[in-house]
Amino acid sequence: MSGPALHLAVEIDGDGAHPAAWRRAAHAPDRLLSPRRAAGLATAAENAGFTLVTLDDGVLPPGTAPDPVGRIGAVERAAFVAASTSTIGIAPVVPVTYAEPFHVSSQLASLDHISAGRAGWVVAEEEHPGAARVWGRSPVTDAAGRAQESRDGVEVARALWDSWEDDAVIRSVATSRYLDRERLHYIDFTGETYAVKGPAIVPRPPQGQLVVLGRPDRVPAARLDVALVDGRDPAEVATAAAGAGTPRVFAEVEVALDAPDATGDERVADLERYAPWADCGRFRYVGSADGLVAVLGELSRHVDGVRLHPLVLDEDLPVVSRLVLPALSERRLTARPLPGTSLRSALGLGRPANRFAATAVQEEAR
């Protein structure tokens, strides 16, 4: 646990966690795929005091007709959001089951530069065989194989972020040198399915290493900064958090809150007429804002943060912003991110030393 502050994140992809959430959305249908939709949600979350927003993604369409079947790439949306906000962290979901880790690391490093050190990465997997065809790759059909791709992808990305030392860019007009080549390094990674030599094509991110979030059963704890854990009740969440072995732990919580025009139960029942809200093994809270405050207070004894998955963003996010976060703040359970701080700083995580610079220092000392 990082301290008394409970960090709150919110998933802002689409219209909400329910596949039919668009039926209760407050915006016109053509706004869903506009970048300003994501920026507006992120701005609302920032103003409310959230620490982090995440943006789900995958190479295949997110749903089937008649529900929305398209989205803008998470990294592209995150870049737009970064330019529209100033304090909130931004973490796109980027699977590396088939994507090239070299390109993923470059995109994410660029996002950290754009956001001035507020970027994170939610590591995910592509489970549908159709994703392989999009990339022109052979399908990875077993869970162990997908986990291996995630482990290797994170290792490559982290090594590439270190392949430029912090002072590699010298910009010397007098000597006409932009880079100090001695401060760029090959990573020489060789895995079971590919090899990467490096170095990166983007300077080291402002945070040194982006905040990496993921499931500890898919990515080794040593390669994660934040474990995302499930559990259908606080006891299960506590057990999962205790075994995570990561610097920070966030619980996954789905919420359907009582709104001015309908209770949470009524809203869920309304959407269940069109499609089921699949059980993903997460804690699910349906009820009043006061009840959610109590639940989050209980969870704060076991986890460092919570990632909320609202039933319908246009209905639940305003209730959380107006009633839940202020109540948590009054109880001194949450802390608003400070201007000018990185996401790592907001989460109480130190800036990692560059592995290659540390090695060079050790060699010089011998």
Kindly name the structural category: alpha/beta
Tell me, what's the shape?
A: globular
What percent strand? 15-25%
Mean pLDDT: 94
State the distance separating the first and last CA atoms: 38 Å
Number of helices: 11
Rounded Rg: 21 Å
Q: From N to C, what is the helix and strand string?
A: EHEHEHEHHEEEEEEHEHEHEHHH
Helical fraction equals 25-40%
Task: Describe the main β-sheet briefly.
Answer: 8 strands, parallel, barrel
Got a strand count? 13
Strand order of the largest sheet: 1-2-3-4-9-10-11-13
Report the uncertain regions: none
Can you walk me through this structure?
By secondary structure, this protein is of the alpha/beta class. It has helices at 35-48, 74-84, 101-114, 130-135, 143-162, 234-242, 264-272, 289-299, 313-330, 343-346, 355-365, and strands at residues 7-11, 52-55, 89-95, 120-124, 169-172, 177-179, 189-190, 195-196, 211-214, 226-229, 248-257, 283-287, 305-310. The strands form three sheets. The chain has an eight-stranded parallel β-barrel, surrounded by seven helices. A two-stranded antiparallel sheet has the order 5-6. Helix 1 links the parallel strand 1 (7-11) and strand 2 (52-55). Helix 2 (74-84) packs parallel to helix 3 (101-114) and helix 8 crosses helix 9. It is globular and about 65 Å long.
